[in-house]
Amino acid sequence: xxxxxxxxxxxxxxxxxxxxxxxxxxxxxxxxxxxxxxxxxxxxxxxxxxxxxxxxxxxxxxxxxxxxxxxxxxxxxxxxxxxxxxxxxxxxxxxxxxxxxxxxxxxxxxxxxxxxxxxxxxxxxxxxxxxxxxxxxxxxxxxxxxxxxxxxxxxxxxxxxxxxxxxxxxxxxxxxxxxxxxxxxxxxxxxxxxxxxxxxxxxxxxxxxxxxxxxxxxxxxxxxxxxxxxxxxxxxxxxxxxxxxxxxxxxxxxxxxxxxxxxxxxxxxxxxxxxxxxxxxxxxxxxxxxxxxxxxxxxxxxxxxxxxxxxxxxxxxxxxxxxxxxxxxxxxxxxxxxxxxxxxxxxxxxxxxxxxxxxxxxxxxxxxxxxxxxxxxxxxxxxxxxxxxxxxxxxxxxxxxxxxxxxxxxxxxxxxxxxxxxxxxxxxxxxxxxxxxxxxxxxxxxxxxxxxxxxxxxxxxxxxxxxxxxxxxxxxxxxxxxxxxxxxxxxxxxxxxxxxxxxxxxxxxxxxxxxxxxxxxxxxxxxxxxxxxxxxxxxxxxxxxxxxxxxxxxxxxxxxxxxxxxxxxxxxxxxxxxxxxxxxxxxxxxxxxxxxxxxxxxxxxxxxxxxxxxxxxxxxxxxxxxxxxxxxxxxxxxxxxxxxxxxxxxxxxxxxxxxxxxxxxxxxxxxxxxxxxxxxxxxxxxxxxxxxxxxxxxxxxxxxxxxxxxxxxxxxxxxxxxxxxxxxxxxxxxxxxxxxxxxxxxxxxxxxxxxxxxxxxxxxxxxxxxxxxxxxxxxxxxxxxxxxxxxxxxxxxxxxxxxxxxxxxxxxxxxxxxxxxxxxxxxxxxxxxxxxxxxxxxxxxxxxxxxxxxxxxxxxxxxxxxxxxxxxxxxxxxxxxxxxxxxxxxxxxxxxxxxxxxxxxxxxxxxxxxxxxxxxxxxxxxxxxxxxxxxxxxxxxxxxxxxxxxxxxxxxxxxxxxxxxxxxxxxxxxxxxxxxxxxxxxxxx
Length: 989
Description:
Blueprint lengths: L12 H7 L19 E5 L5 H18 L8 E4 L5 H11 L6 E4 H8 L21 H13 L2 H9 L1 H23 L6 H14 L16 H20 L4 H4 L6 E5 L9 H14 L4 E8 L13 E5 L2 H22 L5 E4 L3 H13 L4 E3 L3 E2 L4 H12 L6 H8 L21 H15 L34 H21 L6 H15 L1 H6 L2 H9 L9 H13 L4 H13 L2 E2 L10 E4 L1 H4 L6 E5 L18 H6 L5 H16 L4 E6 L1 E2 L2 E2 L4 H10 L4 E2 L31 E2 L1 H9 L1 H9 L14 H20 L7 H19 L7 H9 L1 H17 L3 E16 L2 E17 L2 E10 L3 H9 L5 H8 L7 E8 L4 E5 L3 H20 L11 H4 L4 H4 L6 H5 L1
Helix pairs in contact: 2-3, 5-7, 5-21, 6-7, 7-9, 8-9, 12-13, 14-15, 14-22, 16-17, 17-18, 27-28, 27-34, 29-30, 30-32, 34-35
């Protein structure tokens, strides 16, 4: 039912303050909102949305007839586009005949402004025109303010502060321009005059500010005045919405969801147009949708319910359960309407959406999320970050492993190797970088195949020999450097133009294959549009404005990276709706009203989100906004209350709120109690929509894997390390040798003892090979010199003398002379006993029969084998270099049968001759030889043990986690066996 009233009844002062036409204002020259009475359009929970819309259509048709207005020439404005189809269908069913123009004010404005063009700036006007495009207008502000000497100095002195001020200026200018859109063109001058007076004379209008330009807030006041003039110059030149004020329909009907109109909104523009047309004699009517008052006595159908939740995760789960239950109910009953999920908290809604998608619900998301959180935006950000000349290896690997690249180039020098994918090559590159501690992505260069690699002349080249990159990784590194070269060139230039940055970024994306991948992705296409990569960037005038701005705006690499991040952060991505009718519609509260929904789920109904009075952002204070009739937290909250009030009038509403946020307690929104008191109802507690599932507690025994049905998985080759793992803990052997699991090395700065050990092995190998090739017997001093030359050569080859590694190798380098001396002293004493080197770092293999056709191959790389002839017999001496704890080595040789490594290596020596074995502990203080007593017996026992163990494994013997003490403390597979979570007694139970 529709009745004529001036204002709605309300028991809340904040709503009344905004709709009271008699409220005095301090600034009479400002054109005010809400000076027109409205007719309530009551929505009852007893009536379906279709019935309510049909009643609306009949009432509007009757009013048009009574006003002698031709329906086909009438204009009917609705609050949101989501209800257009509902309203038009209702008119056709309830009224028939000519259908008036039913549309939103934005759609009408767009249809009228197709021929509108941005007017040229008058001669002498320095201010550019606002476009309401944050990206373009921010660049215009940079250009205008940066052209002043004080602006350039400010930007150089405090870049972040200058950029923050730019954001405030653009935000204020947009706020004023949106408000000016709702003012008839002829009255905009009066509004601007009043705004200037208020801005110049209001004490405390800015936080801590004073009148004038001196003192705290003076610069902010000047910049706000500049923003006001910027908006005023644009409005006085004409706006695309001005065509609305020239309309002369037979009648104008405006329908809103509630009577609270916040300045600067589309509803505010609609009211301004209505007032203008009323002044020109056009019949008009304002209809405001209102819930049925409690005093009407109409019983409620499926009254709203409230559900408390423990925390944010519990709230997300319960909200998803409520939506799923409503969807199932709608499917079973054949209801055509979807379920509405009201978006109050975007992080919560994304969690709920993930659960709904997992449950198989089709979803239409009308809110979307920030473009910066999509994979497409991540590809752009990673690419720019990876192109930085000082980018880290992690930055490069993040880009290479993003999955949006195509390894293809027209340069044969950087073409991919055969049968190697980009994923495989990036994995090899990552492993090499982690192994060698390469933190800087571009610190080293990979020479082309066959090119000279003189490290003395080109120390920036990657190490060669055993330290060289794998072929595929080297090719990928060359390809990456080739691809990012256009951007890297600009990073080293002096503030290139934004246009140059974007052209280089386009070239890099095209060369890497990500440009086409972005075009094929919905979010990627939006990212290209936001960065002005697409051809449809707007009309010719807009394109010219953008081209001029992008050519004149100069940015260094860091500023360009921030600009891209700002553009992506300020763009909202909304995925396409499903082709068929969705099960769930995610929508904000303002768009959910007046629409048909089977049920409505409203999570986030707590005191911090629903009805909370937000703070005034920006430099425009609440007092200043009230004086200038600009949006304030109060006006926005009043409009939200109207939407909430209408929403609660619908059947099947379930509100959820969390009781805790972190360690703080949270109360339900005060609006819930306010609504309940106004309606004279008490909200019932909704049931938990989740179905509980009881899982009986059961003890989980420790893992006991076996290979009785998969004997083929048992390695055919065993090393000393893997066999030692089997002896210490069979489960570790299963994880590392059978499953082949490996812990990824950390990509971290610096060197550790293992890096030093690797370097030392290479030094000793080079030293002994060169020494063995000498014709003359060397002296001790010559041996020390040869040792040091070998050490420095390996340092150069391994890249330890480069800027990235040199500081961390200095502690080892300081003891280099001492290390050479003590090693040569030990060596000459060792050789005095008749020993001479036979082989160094040689791979040995020996097959051991197990049973039947089964056998296992022992393999190891022996650091050094010395020989001597004593009493007519050739003797062998297996030496293993160590740089770790000397005490740990002594403990090993003290229990010969527990020492796997030397016994294993002795078993790999020539079986014809007797063998000895020892650890050679190398330290700058001394070189100590730790002999393994009776290693031949230990080797024989080890061979028998290997055969027995392999036979048991082939027979299906379990491989339990038996490690204890240090074997567990430093085990890399400890997280797999979960030994910390079970006990022997519990396992036996």
